Write the structure tokens for this entry.
Amino acid sequence: MHMSGARRAPTDAELIRSVLAAAHSMNVVTDGLRSEVRHLDGSDPMGRLHLHPAGTNGGHEHRPAIRLEFTDIAPTPVRDRVRARVTLLGRLLTPYSDESADSTCVEFGQAVLETARGVTYTGLEELDAAAPDPLAPYEAGMLTHLQDDHPDLVALLLRLVRPLPTAAVVRTLPVALDRYGITLRLEERRGHHDVRLPFPSPLDHVEQSGAQIQALLSAARRRSHRNTLPA
């Protein structure tokens, strides 16, 4: 069943879950030591962590703190490719090892999300209630395919941008794709800004993405003005 079309972007909790679901690596800081884990292979690290509410296990001051850091990088060669940083904070209830396939129990503190809009904090209840975006595991491949093989379609989508882009825009690239729509980055000689183009309705499965993108392209073709901006 489709969600209400009133919301046109992911919540902070949904974005955090999507960053985790698509992650291929993370930095882990515990016992004062930092290590990089590179063998996530796109598997959601939430499956390797059992998050427990804070204050339910007592004696937390004797448990080592753990910090899990994730960086979300745009798959296309845009300026300022870091789209978001996610940090999970907590305390270990069971030992953690980079090499172990066993789950680790963590007394959860909070999730910190850093984006161009600022810094927000998310609790365990919100995180548990949110689901990763259905496109998260496929987004990188879909965006690079669109940019590398169909740059004409990226230029076509510019017709949907309001207000109309000016001649100051020197390049346009797709920078994000989720169940609610596609985001274009409009780069100018000095600076850039992002424009979100919402789908007619949020999608529930990756198989629905083709029809939703075609709906945007059809709407763009119906626009009367001509787009002469470089893509």
